[in-house]
Design a protein that fits this description.
Layout lengths: L1 H14 L3 H16 L4 H23 L4 H5 L5 H17 L11 H12 L19 E3 L14 E4 L8 E4 L1 E3 L9 H14 L2 E3 L14 E6 L15 H8 L4 E7 L10 E3 L6 H7 L7 E3 L9 H14 L5 E6 L3 H14 L5 E5 L10 H6 L4 H15 L6 E5 L5 H9 L4 E4 L1 H6 L22 H4 L4 H25 L13 E6 L2 E4 H4 L7 H4 L5 H6 L13
Parallel strand pairs: 4-13, 5-6, 6-7, 7-10, 10-11, 11-12, 12-13
Antiparallel strand pairs: 1-14, 2-3, 8-9, 14-15
């Protein structure tokens, strides 16, 4: 009896989003019935009901707003408040600088750019420029003028036979299954239109990824798309899938910032036919992503796996994605890259502040190095070993604006991956219901009734427009600093207020290794002093 009541309750909650629309429809006959006894009230209710019904029908049929299609009439209150927000925000909304997944200012930047709305602001900055932690970029009196904004980086080391000329801004890994088919398709169409890359996420390449956009095939510990019946890596399956011309690069996912070292499981009931097809698993059977890889167990083994994937893919760039954890484990990898001579073509450094659809609170808040510290450690290690020039560094975690890109470029990145920025561009409102299957905008759900509201052509155009507007802002940022490419930003360009009376550049605030310094034993950074000599390429453990 209790189970039956629970199911009825769930169905009621499922359809409660249509209650305002149903009330509007009901007002029409109610008003007509009252016209004989109370003509004024009756006709008023009938007219209001008709107006509400017509508005609700319009909401259900329009293609611009997924939220309105899923929540006819009721969602209009949100858009009304959104319309008046610039005037009332100072009185009725919390401080923009509060600790939220993304500040209102950042979200507003994405929405304006995705919708093609003018992005200027009167009266100057909203920031407190005298508070500790405030950052800015120095500008130049000798500005440049650039004829294009399509900034590219070539990814592919000396062992790579098919290098890839990548945009400096691409879509970070979000799997089909975590995102709806319409969301994946919209993002891939945007990648095709804008000439940038779409990382698949560890859920592998689905039919919805095949819309013509460049793909970075991410391979996690579950080896989805290239696994045998036991869940181990399948070289033949990998080789067949990697031969797809749309696959431009291969990314081995070692860990992600939101839940490093955690792994995951997709319950059997959620493994639909399309998901099973993409992942190479049986329909209706739970598929597991272990916490670590089975194809290798040492830094040396990782190098051999990189070489194997590069060979099986026909020489395409192969990289790794990781959130920095134990420093000695990263040092062991770097030592292996340098001493064995097999290195990834790129490294995606994810920060502990990165996001996911679902993660334990302890992992989301307190696991993994933040992006800034992780990126600088990786950058300095490669510089100190003299191999930085052969490996491109891609930064990922809470990167939204052109300033974010310039700042992280100054700290060592060659390019960036964005996830939530593109989610905002296709309509995410941060309802934080990703794990429930009840995403109000149809982005993180497999419920057809919900994701049908996300109209692919419209959202693809918005995502492509967001990328183009971000690249334009990046171009203007480079020009104002007297530069020709984002990779010319250095720590000297980034200024950081460290107190009420002190400002320092990133060049003087942080330790920076000189080329080859680790080979000469000249690096004094505490992490190197403590762990470098104890890292070993044949084990993840420290030497005694």
């Amino acid at each position: 009896m209790r189970l039956r009541f629970t199911r009825v309750s769930e169905r009621v909650r499922y359809y409660e989003r249509y209650i305002p629309f149903a009330i509007a429809v009901g007002l029409i006959p109610l008003g007509l019935l009252l016209t004989s006894a109370a003509p004024g009230l009756g006709w008023l209710l009938a007219v209001l009901g008709l107006a509400g019904t017509l508005t609700g029908i319009y909401d259900l049929l329009q293609t611009q707003h997924a939220l309105m299609r899923n929540y006819p009439l009721s969602s209009r209150m949100r858009y009304l408040l959104e319309h008046f927000r610039p005037e009332i925000r100072q009185y009725f909304v919390e401080d923009d600088h509060a600790e939220t997944p993304f500040s209102r200012e950042q979200r507003a930047v994405v929405y304006r750019r995705a919708k093609g709305v003018e992005g200027v602001r009167p009266f100057g900055t909203l920031r407190d420029v005298y508070s500790s932690g405030y950052e800015w970029l120095n500008h130049s009196m000798a500005t440049t003028h650039l004829d294009h904004q399509d900034f590219r980086i070539r990814i592919g080391g000396p062992d790579c036979r098919q290098p890839y000329d990548s945009s400096v801004v691409n879509i970070s890994g979000m799997s089909y299954g975590a995102l709806s088919p319409n969301a994946i398709e919209a993002l891939n169409r945007a990648a095709k239109a804008g000439g940038f890359a779409h990382t698949t996420g560890e859920g592998s390449i689905s039919r919805f990824h095949r819309m013509g956009g460049d793909l970075v095939w991410q391979i996690g510990s579950g080896y989805f798309g290239c696994r045998d019946a036991s869940g181990n890596f399948d070289p033949d399956g990998f080789s067949l899938a990697a031969a797809d011309p749309a696959v431009k690069m291969i990314e081995i996912k070692l860990s992600q910032g939101a839940k490093p070292g955690h792994g995951g499981i997709l319950p059997g009931p959620k493994v639909t036919e399309a998901i099973a097809e993409a992942r190479g698993v049986p329909v209706g059977v739970a598929c597991v992503s272990p916490a670590s890889h089975s194809a290798f167990s040492t830094p040396r083994g990782l190098c051999e796996f990189i070489a194997q994937l590069r060979d099986l893919s026909g020489g395409k760039p192969v990289g790794i994605k990781m959130c920095v954890g134990h420093p000695w484990e990263w040092f062991a990898m770097a030592k292996a890259f340098q001493s064995i001579g097999i290195a990834p073509d790129f490294i995606v450094v994810d920060g502990g502040e990165g996001g996911t659809g679902a993660a334990p609170v302890e992992f989301a808040d307190h696991k993994g190095a933040p992006l800034r510290e992780g990126l600088m450690l990786v950058h300095n290690t490669l510089v100190g070993l003299g191999i930085r020039d052969r490996i491109k560094l891609i930064a990922s975690a809470k990167i939204i604006t052109a300033f974010d890109i310039c700042r992280i470029s100054a700290l060592g990145a060659d390019g960036v991956n964005m996830a939530r920025g593109f989610m905002f561009a296709i309509g995410c409102i941060q309802a934080q219901a990703c794990h429930t299957g009840k995403c109000p905008t149809g982005i993180t759900t497999q419920d057809p009734d919900r994701y049908r509201a996300l109209v692919v052509p419209d959202k693809a155009e918005r995502a492509a427009r967001f990328h183009a507007a971000t690249m334009h802002a990046l171009k203007e940022a480079c020009e104002s600093s007297g530069l020709c490419h984002p990779d010319e930003f250095t720590p000297d360009h980034l200024m950081i207020r460290t107190g009420p009376r002190e400002v320092r550049s990133a060049a003087s605030l942080y330790d920076w290794a000189s080329p080859g310094a680790l080979l000469e034993g000249e690096v004094t950074h505490p992490a190197f002093a403590k762990y470098w000599n104890r890292a070993q390429i044949d084990s993840w453990a420290m030497a005694a």
